[in-house]
Amino acid sequence: MVSLLVDAVESCCGAMESGHKRWLEAQEEVYRHWLWPLAPSFSLSKGEVERRVDGSLLAGAALWQAQADTQRELMLAVEKLWLEMGRNLQQQLPDGDAAPIAVMRRALEVGCASGAALSTASRQAGHFAATNFSGTPLKAARDVRKVLTQR
């Protein structure tokens, strides 16, 4: 049981470390795009302004994605721990088909299966939200630009 907890802590630490690295990279990109207005004043072409605005919006999406990726990795680590703990508990039950043992075994099986299913659904919903909604501001900006150029 101790090795399960050690493995879980190591998985969580690895997820946090990689997530922190992605978060810092995304923040660096955001700051780079946000600092462009502080550059010496000179006329920018319409295309350059659009590129800079799009870059800022993409950098914001990268921040959101970095957070979502870290959350997903942590959920995977917890899901793995949950399944391993269930298996470990099942192995500790005595052999036999006595009613109390069979009920415990079935309850552990149902609990592990439902926990894994719920975790999978949560991870998929989070991934969908992060990948589809993080690009929404950029799409909206491009749609606005398209409408404005048509007028």
Uncertain regions: pLDDT < 50 for 5+ in a row?
none
Determine the number of helices (DSSP H or I, runs of at least 4 residues): 4
Radius of gyration: 24 Å
Report the span from N to C terminus.
Answer: 67 Å
Name the helicity range.
Answer: over 70%
Order of helices and strands: HHHH
Sheet with the most strands? none
How many strands? Answer: 0
Organism: Chromobacterium sinusclupearum
Protein name: Phasin domain-containing protein
Can you give a write-up of this model?
With 151 residues, this protein is mainly alpha-helical. It has one domain. Helix content is 86%, strand content 0%. The chain has helices spanning 2-34, 46-92, 99-133, 136-150. The protein starts with a helix and ends with a helix. The mean pLDDT is 82.
List the helices and strands and how they pair.
Blueprint: H1 2-34, H2 46-92, H3 99-133, H4 136-150
Helix pairs in contact: 1-2, 2-3, 2-4
Organism: Chromobacterium sinusclupearum
Protein name: Phasin domain-containing protein
In short:
With 151 residues, this protein is an all-alpha fold.
Features:
mainly alpha
